[in-house]
Amino acid sequence: MDKILVLDFGGQYNQLIARRVRENNVYAEIKPYNKITVSDIKEEGYKGVIFTGGPNSVYDEMSPHYDPEILNAGIPILGICYGAQLMAYMGGGVVESAADSSEYGKTIVNFKNHAIFKDVKSPSVCFMSHTDYIAKTPDSFTVIADTDKCPCAAMCDDKRKLYAVQFHPEVTQSEYGKQIISNIVFDICKCSKDWVMDSFIETTVSSFKEKLSGKKVLLALSGGVDSSVAAVLLHKAVGPNLVCVFVDHGLLRKNEGDFVEKTFKDKFGMNLIRVNAEQRFLDKLKGVTEPEKKRKIIGEEFIRVFEDEGKKIGKVDVLAQGTIYPDVIESGKGDSAVIKSHHNVGGLPDVISFDEIVEPLRDLFKDEVREVGLKLGIPKELVFRQPFPGPGLAVRVIGELTKEKLDTLRDADAIFREEVDKAGITDANQYFAVLTNTRTVGVMGDARTYGYTLALRSVTTDDFMTAEWTRIPFEVLEIASHRITNEVKGISRVVYDITSKPPATVEWE
Ligand code: XMP
Q: Are residues 368 and 464 in the same domain?
């Protein structure tokens, strides 16, 4: 299979670069610059290399550099931002820093006629983020793009197939960025389109069939996207030898536990053990109000439940995990195998006795995992499931938990999610209800009520590290509020959370 190497110099868009390449059905992998040598690169047979951006200046003592021999390796290279400056520096050009040449954000770029700019309109908008710039290209290079401030927005050495762009083609703000990446991948690197999810499924299943033949495989299924897709993929390979354990801690959303069980047991015919541990968790959480304490108790209890199940199941040969590519790569730091430290399964390797770990999704980005999930026939509700915290509704019932409060929240939350879905609000990335611990006075008919205040929360975000509160139309909020106060007993007031992250977090606890 043809593949492109994304050589990581610590830039913030590195994963995006690999994803953009993969969108062209060409496999790309990310390696830190200090973990792969020029001879490794040659040996691996990469069809092309992309130098990423990075936060440094090439003249900084600590800035990441690379063996200049790579420029003569006969492999096409594209340098992006810092990667472009590094290419200039390595080739003998001059990089300078000048505050009045720095550019940030959407910038008009003038392109010359060149193969890497095939079908790119000139001038057009690109995303820039730099202070340093290439003041003088190396002798063998020619400038092929510029801006008002930047004399060299792109350069090339066609003979050695070396290309560099000061802007970021991988971000959507660069109008023709996708086109440029596609030109590089196909016209320059001559890659074939052989990274497709159908063949990923086929090769993964057949390799696991062979590798895991006759072995007992255990997977902790949370009902989230990653573990669900990993489960179905492995089930195709080993059938009943896969045992999935689904711990229902009683803190799931309305009907969620039943849905997960039905999907995997009935639809896929899997060997699924559902552990109904609601009472166990409620007992442990009785009287606990402090958020961190709640989270800790749930995490620990989860491990204990699994430990008990593990004793019943006995020794397994293989522990399977739903680790995905972003869990594996840690930008600029090394690509050592990380055993997924997901809240729900963090401590499993310690309490289960097994010989090896398999991670069938460790090469896939989230959107690829979803594509595989759909192709495997996993219901859309699971494949496009919103992120859901490991401690579940425990962090959405403020203060002490009771079964009644959880049921109240479940009903209200289901109504809110249903109304947002019905309204087709595409920029709501995570939306849910929170049962506050505040009771307020209301009036229903002629009677006084004294019920809980329910908060509705919806965020718009790419990465959940920062988030904006979603501008849900008032009409939708009104329907949700009306339905909740009418249909859910015990709630007398509904409010909408209009705080972004930061300063707030997405979850209330
Ligand atoms: P916060 O509240 O930190 O949430 O802004 C950011 C995202 O992470 C989810 N979240 C969790 N996910 N285990 C998880 O797997 C957890 O303990 C946990 N806590 C928060 C949250 O739902 C949001 O998507």
A: no
